[in-house]
Amino acid sequence: MLQTLHRSKTPSGAAYIDEGQGGETLVLIHGVGMRIEAWGPQIERLSKDHRVIAVDLPGHGFSAPLDTPPELPNFVAWFSELVDELGLEAVSVAGHSMGALIAAGFAATKPTKLRRVALLNGVYKRTPTAREAVEARADEIFSGAFDREAPLERWFSADEKDSAAYRLVHDLLQKVDPGGYAAAYRAFATGDAVYSDSWPRVKAPALFLTGDGDKNSTAEMAEDMARATPQGRAVVIKGHRHMVNVTAPEEVSEALADWLTWQPAT
């Protein structure tokens, strides 16, 4: 049974949790169809040494929906407003999937507010064929044809279907608001190239992590982003797909803990 974490809300209606103290202030942004609970293992591990804030995307969990068109820059503006509403100075940001695109946008547009950035299972410059496929899914979802089982086939291997991670993600997909899902997926489908040329200008320590079995957020994408970023590093976790933060929680949490200690080059 899904255990719901207690949230607070910003004045604009963004739901979040705030755990731990000391160390870096880390903000976690989940992917399409998920909510704060998908970060459970990372919140538990990282809040021991850091202040960890995790947020529900607009129209997900307990956050109000976006009141602007479903485009990636509007999600980035929403996140930037949340950082300001919480009175945060400079933060470290880690995002998964759609959250990774938002984190990339924040890194590109708010460099003075960024200490470091981590993209988990982030997409980067999709091929024309991949872009066509994901935009077709976005059109289908936006039309109201929302198959809550279909993502599971892409995100998990057959031998993971009896796992606790699979059950968690399945339950979260069952609960997500269709309108919130459709809006976020539209931005996800059309947003991979919006900030993709910004990485050479991102001076903060940058981690790009994915699973070697993720066919949409590939190891090659992570490695290409790391090469394009002055302080970028790629980590590829073998034997895992798109939901690597819940299927390989210890490895992901350790990689994030290590990233939070990187010292910026001078």
From TrEMBL:
Q: Which UniProt keywords apply?
A: Hydrolase
Q: Which domain of life is it from?
A: Bacteria
Provide the Gene Ontology terms for cellular component.
Answer: membrane
Q: Which residues form the AB hydrolase-1 domain?
A: 26-255
Q: Where are the transmembrane segments?
A: none
Q: Which Gene3D superfamilies did the record assign? A: alpha/beta hydrolase
Q: Is Magnesium set as a keyword in this record?
A: no
Q: Which GO terms describe its molecular function?
A: hydrolase activity
**Pfam families given in the database record:** Abhydrolase_6
Protein name stated in the entry: Alpha/beta fold hydrolase
Q: Which organism is it from?
A: Endobacterium cereale
Q: What is the lineage of its organism?
A: Bacteria, Pseudomonadati, Pseudomonadota, Alphaproteobacteria, Hyphomicrobiales
